[in-house]
Amino acid sequence: MLGRRPTFPELGIFSALWSEHCSYKHSRPILKTFPTTGRQVVQGPGENAGVLRLPGGWAVAFKIESHNHPSAVEPYQGAATGAGGILRDVFTMGARPVALLNSLRFGPLDDGRNRYLFAGVVRGIGDYGNCVGVPTLGGEVDFAPGYAGNPLVNAMCVGVLKEKDLIKAAAHGVGNVLLAVGSRTGRDGIHGASFASEELTHESEQRRPQVQVGDPFTEKLLLEASLELIASGHIVAIQDMGAAGLTSSSAEMAARGGVGVEIDLSKVPTREPGMTPYEILLSESQERMLVVAKADRVKEVRAIAAKWDLDATPIGKVTDDGMYRCTWQGKVVVEIPGRQLVEDCPVYYPEAKEDPAVAKLRASTPHAARSYAPSDALLALLDSASVASKKWVFEQYDSTVQASTVIPPGGDAGVLRVRHEDFGIAVKTDCNSRYVRLDPYEGGKATVAEAARNVACT
Q1: Could you read off the pLDDT of 114-171 as tens digits, one per residue?
Q2: What is the pLDDT of residue 213?
């Protein structure tokens, strides 16, 4: 593709951006079958979050994504940074986050490792959301043997904005300046994107250094600074440095805008000495944004960041040649056609096969192992962790911060009001994992229907 032997940083870039986590190379054809347009759709797939139209010129931005592998290795930080990442995806659209939700799966709680993962994930989500000041208004948790040691941790964020204030992560304007805003770059999270694409094994515990470490107080500063930058008109694009860090944010923004970028890696602020170009490109240190500022507004952008005690360092520029180029101390270390990184990644169509054990289970006739008196049957159900009250979980989350909560967790759906308006937003996450396992198609339908019923009856 390059016509030459790639450099070591280039190999790292391809490895990260062509990983399943970043490229969806196995799932992209299936995901494209979803309906994504409609009268209320303002922004569909392809941006940091989806956006729907609300009355009065308002819009609601939302996104849900998983942080499974990091949470399996380091549950507290894995879950906390999952919440932080989803918050950034929403406020980079120009929306103020107003609610967090989650959908969690763990193995049976009679196992000590599963209890450790459960407690750590719940604490991580709660601590991060509480510190940033965003209420957790809903969620669900279930337990089954298939999730033993391999939890599912899905975090969702909802934000509101005026539709006219929507900003997209597409770089444009040749000569406009790229700035790194927020925390300095460290060695945490390197190879995080490729790790998230691998199968968990007993050796995965050794990947703990690849789990990012979150700082919710810096996140709060970054939230306020980002919204002020967007409102100021001094910037043309902004994106979170999430999976694959600086590499993904810069390459994706350039691809969306049909432009090239040139980055001087020696100008990226680091918090550890001796970091290499490879490490700087692939670091997944948290609470960082990449901003494309108008060429004549860099001073104003840096002033707004400084107001919120944040660094804003010029590290590159937008070019017109479509190349993804990085230099290090005056030497070019990366030079790749940007299209190859994002749009030309390989796509696979693996043959789908059903597990024979699942087909056998679906065809079997359930039978009671023993007969129960009605009162005993009820007690047995209530004794199940999947059925019992989840009050212990949602009481660890602040559900009333921002003073907009109308209905807190514990009911069918959480409800919050849109300030200064006479309408609100109902939110809920749902899934019946057993249905989905037995019949993915019918289980998927049932999941959507259950969430819709919970919202409709609130």
Answers
A1: 999 999 999 999 999 999 999 999 999 999 999 999 999 999 999 999 999 999 999 9
A2: 84
DSSP string, 87-134: HHHHHTTTPEEEEEEEEEEE--TTSHHHHHHHHHHHHHHHHHHHHHT-
Same topology for domains 36-166+397-458 and 168-346, yes or no? no
Q: Within the chain, how many helices (H) and strands (E) appear?
A: 17, 16
By the 8 A CB rule, do 285 and 212 touch?
A: yes
Residues known to be catalytic: 21, 67
Of 254, 285, 293, the closest CA to residue 268 belongs to 285
DSSP state of 352: P
366: helix, coil or strand? coil
SS3 of the chain: helix, strand, coil, percent, to 5: 40, 25, 35
- Confirm if 23 and 345 have CB atoms less than 8 A apart: yes
> Which CATH number is correct for 36-166+397-458, 3.30.1330.10, 3.40.50.2300, 2.60.120.10, 3.30.420.40?
3.30.1330.10
Structure tokens at 263: 């980055």
CA distance 280 to 328: 11
- Which pLDDT value is given to residue 212? 77
Output the average pLDDT for the chain: 93
| Interval 219-232: pLDDT, tens | 999 999 999 999 99
CATH number of the domain at 168-346, out of 1.10.275.10, 1.25.40.890, 3.40.50.1820, 3.90.650.10? 3.90.650.10
**What pLDDT, on the 0 to 100 scale, is given for residue 2?**
86
Query: What whole-number distance in Å separates Cα of residue 448 and Cα of residue 64?
Result: 14
* Residue 320 neighbours by CB under 8 Å, 6+ apart: 174, 259, 260
* Model confidence band, residue 402 (pLDDT cutoffs 50, 70, 90): very high
Q: DSSP labels for 73-90?
A: HSHHHHHHHHHHHHHHHH
Q: Given CA atoms 399, 229, 249, 62 in this order, what sign does their dihedral have?
A: positive
Per-domain boundaries in the chain: 36-166+397-458, 168-346
Cβ–Cβ under 8 Å, residues 382 and 388? yes
Contact 147, 234 (CB under 8 A): no
Percent of the chain with pLDDT over 70: 95
